[in-house]
Amino acid sequence: MKKIFLFLFLFLGSLNNVSAEPVRIVSGDEKAKITIIAYESLTCSHCASFHKDVYPQLKKDYIDTGMVKIEFRHFPLDVAAFNASKISQCNQNESLRILESLYSNQQSWIKGSTVEEVNDNLKKFLKSEGFNLDFDKCINNKEIEDFVLNDRIEGTKNFKVNATPTIIINNEKFEKTLNYKNLKKTLEKLI
Asked: What is the pLDDT of residue 20?
């Protein structure tokens, strides 16, 4: 009996240390009728503006009601954004919260004239926000790195993404000016 208990304890305890395969950062019901894909770079000020000015109303009116889900995909424009993207994927239980925090506090961590300075600011920011991550392990995780890079490759290949944010609605590129009014008009036609 002790051996069985010890085996279960060791086996189940080791599951927490296994690096799970990265998954999409999604807000909303997986079965929603409308899927929005947002290709973003974590150092992009326009992406931060989307999270500040458009996403809250979109969330309230469409995501929280179950009509829309939004998938956040990575399209890093620089090394700092690439590292921040890897960080956002590292703790899957808090990925959405990390992503939202990185955008809403973007000016707190993107300071620095070198990647090392930005990384130091990112580490300090994550710690101040209470995110418990092994920064170096996250940054050096090859599986997460490939996941982030594949998002960028797929965005370019499938949707001709060349700037951020780029919004895709039900596999169609949103070509209008990105504001809530235009997004709402498009969504209403699909409901």
From this structure: 65
Q: How confident is the prediction for the chain on average, in pLDDT?
A: 90
Q: How many domains does the chain have?
A: 1
Amino acid 1: pLDDT: 46
17 belongs to a structural domain: no
Q: What is the CATH number of the domain that holds 125?
A: 3.40.30.10
**183 located within any domain:** yes
Strands annotated E in 6-59: 25-27, 34-40
Q: Which residues of 136-169 are buried (b: 16+ CB within 10 A; e: fewer)?
A: eebbebeebbebbeebbeebeeebebeebbbbbb
DSSP annotation string for 156-186: HHHH---SSSEEEETTEE--S--SHHHHHHH
Q: How far apart are CA 93 and CA 105, in angstroms?
A: 20
Q: Structural domain of residue 181, as residue ranges?
A: 22-190
Tell which wins on pLDDT, 21 or 149: 149
Residues 6+ away with beta carbon under 8 Å from 164: 39, 40, 41, 44, 46, 47, 75, 77
pLDDT tens-digit map of 42-83: 999 999 999 999 999 999 999 999 999 999 999 999 999 999
Count of Cβ atoms closer than 10 Å to residue 95 Cβ: 19
